[in-house]
Specification:
Elements lengths: L5 H5 L7 H6 L6 E4 L11 H9 L14 H11 L11 E4 L1 H13 L5 E6 L4 H9 L2 E6 L11 H5 L6 E7 L11 H14 L2 E5 L23 E6 L12 E4 L3 H13 L5 H11 L3 H23 L5 E2 L7 E5 L5 H10 L6 E4 L1 E2 L13 E5 L4 H19 L1
Helix pairs in contact: 3-10, 4-10, 5-6, 5-9, 11-13
Bound molecules: pyridoxal-5'-phosphate (PLP).
The site of pyridoxal-5'-phosphate (PLP) has 13 residues, from helix 5.
Length: 392
């Protein structure tokens, strides 16, 4: 039997998805799924109309970096944040995921390192494994809002293999929002160190008090790449459309070649993208209102649970909870396989997978406020009862 690659053997199982398979073994249980960032908010009508209107005679390949009309729409939309973008500054990708993978592949060789504030979006590990890149964590603390540490601390993490600093703003799973000062400092620091900046802004439109500062507002200099996606903003996770944006001509040329290797992003999705990017500003206010209400409900419910510590997200729709349990992974399994409250239970994402060293997230879980308010409140009630039963 031929053997599989070392890479295949080191691929992590996504902590966000792994318990879903276990939950499927219990079809009789009503599970409230707060493990995955899959909103139940209806996809806006104009996007669904674009799907219906897509009736080509031949479903053909499109250009590697996207249809001109979709690139133009994305350039115009992202120019709202100040940078004056043209078609050539945008590559259309299969979700923000592929944009991240292309950024990693264009910037790094096997053995290189990317710095990421921790806890971080777990799939950064997966993209790192595929291209042979190590994610080097930058420790942050719940107590100070997961702020990025000082330049001196960052300096200590850089070595000859470091190629980039990557963060999501607003943050998944922390809900942290970086403002102008913090972002300016990071972009300046990275320029001094000759590093790329990957600003993952897929939650840019979901914030509650003050908006995150986009790297586009700071002019998006050549060492900066911005990632965006339709998934969360337009409740369109399944359409798989994202954008990689940079004003660095050399980098964009290599991203075009990466795109050529997989031919092109799908045309249907790009028509949906054009419809999405043309939505009026009040659409974004509407979704902020929905998520604010859900996040508030979630925070009120979970912080009332004895022994639970959590931060209120300032953006995105996640919160990392510190639980009074010794092993959150085992606890999350217990909720699925053993614990029921009137035939119901919850699926949560164990915290370990959001850390480079899973031990650091051992007592934590991540919740996503992706369900309606009453279901979130019910889920918190089940969680509280589950914690009591687990400890007993
Ligand atoms: C921070 C972050 N970046 C990127 C993605 C990838 O999203 P997609 O590939 O659906 O655009 C996600 C999805 O959850 C995310 O949370």
């Amino acid at each position: 039997m031929p053997t599989l690659s070392a890479r295949a053997h080191t691929l992590q199982e996504s902590p966000i998805r792994k318990l879903d398979l276990t939950a499927m073994r219990f079809p009789e249980v009503r599970f409230h799924r707060l493990n995955i960032g899959q909103p139940d908010v209806p996809t806006p009508g104009p996007l669904l109309e674009a799907i219906r209107a897509f009736q080509p005679e031949v479903v053909a390949y499109g250009p590697a970096s996207g249809l001109p009309a979709c690139r133009d729409a994305a350039a115009a939309y992202h120019s709202r944040w100040g940078a004056s973008l043209q078609r050539e500054h945008v590559a259309v990708t299969t979700g923000g995921s592929e944009a991240l993978l292309f950024a990693f592949a264009a910037m790094c060789d096997p053995g290189d390192e990317i710095l990421v504030p921790e806890p971080y979006y777990t799939n950064y590990n997966g993209f790192g494994t595929v291209v042979g890149v190590t994610i080097r964590p930058i420790a942050t603390r719940l107590e100070d809002g997961f702020a990025i540490p000082s330049d001196d601390v960052l300096d200590g993490l850089v070595n000859e293999r470091t190629r980039a600093i990557l963060f999501s703003n607003p943050g998944n799973p922390t809900g942290a929002v970086y403002g102008r000062d913090e972002l300016e400092r990071i972009i300046r620091w990275a320029a001094r160190k000759d590093l790329f900046v990957i600003a993952d802004e897929v939650y840019r439109r979901i914030w509650f008090d003050t908006p995150p500062t986009s790297a586009l507002e700071l002019g998006a200099p050549d060492h900066v790449v911005i990632i965006d996606s339709l998934s969360k903003t337009y409740s369109a996770c399944g359409i798989r459309l994202g954008f990689l944006i940079s004003q660095n001509g050399e980098l964009m040329e290599k991203v075009e070649r990466l795109g050529q290797s997989r031919l092109g992003p799908q045309p249907l999705a790009q028509h949906v993208g054009i419809a999405a990017l043309g939505l009026p500003e009040d659409y974004y206010e509407h979704i902020r209102h929905i998520y604010r209400e859900r996040v508030d409900a979630m925070m009120q419910a979970v912080t009332a649970v004895d022994g639970v510590r959590a931060n209120r997200p300032a953006g995105a729709f996640y919160s990392m909870l510190d639980l009074p349990v010794d092993d959150a992974d085992a606890f999350a399994r217990f909720l699925i396989t053993d614990f029921r409250l009137d035939g119901e239970s919850v699926v949560v994402a164990p915290g370990g997978g959001f850390y480079a060293d899973p031990a650091r997230g051992r007592s934590q879980i991540r919740l996503a406020a992706v369900l309606e308010r009453d279901r979130i409140e019910r889920a918190a009630e089940i969680l509280a009862a589950g914690i009591r039963a687990y400890g007993a």
